[in-house]
Automatic annotation (TrEMBL):
Protein name: D-3-phosphoglycerate dehydrogenase
Parent sequence residues shown: 1 to 310 of 527
Key words of the record: Amino-acid biosynthesis, NAD, Oxidoreductase, Serine biosynthesis
The gene coding this protein: serA
Pathway membership, UniProt: Amino-acid biosynthesis; L-serine biosynthesis; L-serine from 3-phospho-D-glycerate: step 1/3
Example GO BP: L-serine biosynthetic process
E.C. designation(s): 1.1.1.95
Transport found in the keyword field: no
Amino-acid biosynthesis in keyword set: yes
Highest taxon of the lineage: Archaea
Family statement drawn from the similarity comment of this UniProt entry: Belongs to the D-isomer specific 2-hydroxyacid dehydrogenase family.
Length: 310
């Protein structure tokens, strides 16, 4: 009997091709929680990106489920406790989109320093405002990296190549390891106080929710620039919007939001905030990597083997 797999967010063809060799695959995106609950009982595995909320209700209705795969890094849209209770293996693909998210962060930082999205929109409206879009150089500026994991590391290497000074806060990384890539490990307070640009690369967990808030923004340099290409909620959007309005924060670049799509975010109406719709992992290469990784892990688990990234 062939396994049945439900793919409920868009997945690259390369991953679907692997699955189809062994399984009957249904791609059905945009399902509501009720619709998922009604159908999940027919499937042995569920594969998602960040669009599907895999709630405890969905998991409990998945009476045949053996595997939930996340084509990407963050598993915050999957109720891991509920899956563990039911003995369902949850695996992700944390390495496949590291470089895509890193390059997006660098693109955001450069766009922020030189006002590229705003200047482009202005010129397309027929304006020619050269002095309005005066930028700043990144060379010799201090970049504060919160979370020196996979993406934080790759960002640091590229920022070092641009001759930025890199400092980082990460309670789980040693000073020696940071020093190897030319990064000084500092306390969070020091990082806030010393950085010209701050970029966050942590998971969204209890300890990191609203880690950047009104209180911490008050301790930062005047004219600081903030970047969030990690997870919505690490920066308090309201506090950031207030910081931008007051002029304390010179600009922000935001790829991820507390609620997505971010219809209510106070950041959307601000000229000095540049935004992208959660595009960090959206490259052809990254999507192929994460899709093949979860597809291979799915087949392995369904056949009684291990998953690489549990
Ligand atoms: P990672 O696990 O390799 O690194 C995360 C780092 O954060 C680790 O080094 C960890 O020690 C550190 N950390 C944990 N708690 C911390 C705390 N309280 N303070 C400071 N540091 C702390 O993860 P990664 O692959 O580098 O991904 C980083 C983030 O980027 C994740 O939230 C991930 O979901 C997100 N992401 C977003 C996109 C996107 O599309 N925008 C794409 C890929 C990843
Ligand atoms: C991730 O955690 O991998 C990212 O948010 C990217 C995505 O979901 O596509």
């Amino acid at each position: 009997m062939r396994y049945r797999v439900l793919v409920s967010d868009p997945l690259a063809e390369e991953g679907l091709d692997i699955l189809k060799e062994f399984c009957d695959v249904d791609v059905n995106t945009g399902l509501t929680e009720d619709q998922l609950v009604a159908t999940i009982g027919d499937y042995d595995a569920l594969l998602v990106r960040s669009g599907t909320e895999v709630t405890a209700r969905v998991i409990d209705a998945g009476t045949r489920l053996k595997f939930i795969g996340r084509a990407g890094a963050g598993v915050d849209n999957i109720n891991i406790d509920a899956a563990t209770r039911r003995g369902i293996i949850v695996a992700n693909a944390p390495e496949g989109n590291t470089l895509a998210a890193t390059e997006h962060t660098m693109a955001m930082m450069l766009s922020l320093a030189r006002n590229i999205p705003q200047a482009s929109a202005s010129l397309k409206k027929g304006e020619w405002k050269r002095s309005k879009f005066m930028g700043v150089e990144l060379n010799d500026k201090t970049l504060g990296i919160v979370g020196l994991g996979r993406i934080g590391n790759e960002v640091a290497k590229r920022a070092r190549a641009m001759e930025m000074k890199c400092i980082a806060y990460d309670p789980f990384i040693s000073k020696e390891r940071a020093a190897k890539i030319g990064v000084e490990l500092v306390s969070l307070d020091d990082l806030f106080r010393r950085s010209d640009v701050i970029t966050v690369h942590t998971p969204l967990i209890k300890e990191t929710r609203h880690m950047i808030n009104a209180k911490s923004i008050a301790t930062m340099k005047d004219g600081v620039r903030l970047i969030n290409c990690a997870r919505g909620g690490i920066i308090d959007e309201k506090a950031l919007a207030d910081g931008i309005r007051s002029g304390k924060v010179a600009g922000a670049a935001v790829d991820v939001f507390e609620s997505e799509p971010p219809t209510e975010s106070p950041l959307l109406g601000l000229d000095r905030v540049i935004v992208t719709p959660h595009l960090g992992a959206s490259t052809v290469e990254a999507q192929k990597n994460v899709a093949t990784s979860v597809a291979n892990q799915c087949i392995s688990v369904l056949e009684g083997g291990p998953a690489k990234y549990v």
